[in-house]
Hints:
Blueprint: E1 3-4, E2 9-13, E3 19-23, E4 28-33, E5 40-45, E6 51-55, E7 60-64, E8 69-74, E9 81-86, E10 92-96
Antiparallel strand pairs: 1-2, 2-3, 3-4, 5-6, 6-7, 7-8, 9-10
Amino acid sequence: MPFSSPKGYLITGNGDGSIQFWNVQTKKCFKTLEGHSDIVNCLTILSNGCIASGSYDKTIRIWDTATGQCIKILKGHTKCINCLAVLTDGSLVSGSDDENN
């Protein structure tokens, strides 16, 4: 799911597990982040400027946008991640297809 930033670029999560940064004016990709092993289903910007991505691979990854490095992998979901949100206190929350037993 793509979203625009105030810096004039668009970020997309892709079916191949990558995340791409696009220049809105030139319509060219200028950075690709790789690490997920399945579809990137959702993205959000954290209060510190990092990006969080959720995937069908059941992980959430935190990315340093300056270096393009994955700085943290969050595990615990048993099914794909469907949505991410940042709460007013800066907490990251996620929704998935997990089942309650």
